[in-house]
Amino acid sequence: MRHRYIRSIVFIMIVLVVSVACSNNWRSSNKQPVIKPDDLRMAIINSIKNPFAKTDTLIVDHQWAFCGNSKPEEVTVVFDLKMDSTLYRRQLSNITNQTIVPIKEYEAVMDTVLKYKFKNQYPESLWDSCRVGKTVVSIHAEQISPTKVKLYEQYMLNDKSQSVTKEFNFTANRWTYHLIMASNNDE
Question: pLDDT band at residue 178, thresholds of 50, 70 and 90?
């Protein structure tokens, strides 16, 4: 009976050691830089298709926000899309045939409208009235490993929204993707 107990303890210890080793290996592999990051950014931009193509402006939010109480292992490894850069904005504009406005610039315009038009008295419908006819998109990239990145896109136009999740993989010396999920929410 005692041998079984000792074997059980040894087995549990081995499982714990292996799982910790695998976990540390995964954490260290997803913190290594992505292979050919600029190629990945271009592949991501080239994959973007605004489902509300009749709009003239795409307001892009690409910054992740995390809770200050998150443990390091709970925080996603973010791949920076650099959508504020002139190069990537221009490419996205060419692909979508729309004006691209980063959310920070859009919020600055809204602050100006709030200050001068509404005398700093925030009207209930300021956000909604300013975005009429414009698509707002949140685009976030999560690095899974140096050769795998998940992309999350959330589009919103008036009372309609669409979510898209893609997985990008580096194979045969280039970045390719496949669609994981797409869903509509028309209210």
Answer: very high
Alpha-carbon torsion 26, 30, 32, 37, what sign? positive
| 39 neighbors 174 (Cβ within 8 angstroms) | yes
Out of 2-11, 52-61, 160-169, give the one with best mean pLDDT.
Answer: 160-169
User: Which residue type does 163 have?
Assistant: S
Q: List the structure tokens of 167.
A: 């997985």
Task: Give CA–CA dist 134/59, Å, rounded.
Answer: 7
132-162 burial: b if 16+ Cβ within 10 Å, else e:
eebbbbbbbbbbbbbbbbbbbbbbbbeeebb
Q: Is residue 59 a contact partner of residue 137, using CB atoms and an 8 Å limit?
A: yes
Using the 8-state DSSP alphabet, how is residue 175 labeled? E
Give the SS3 label for residue 69: coil
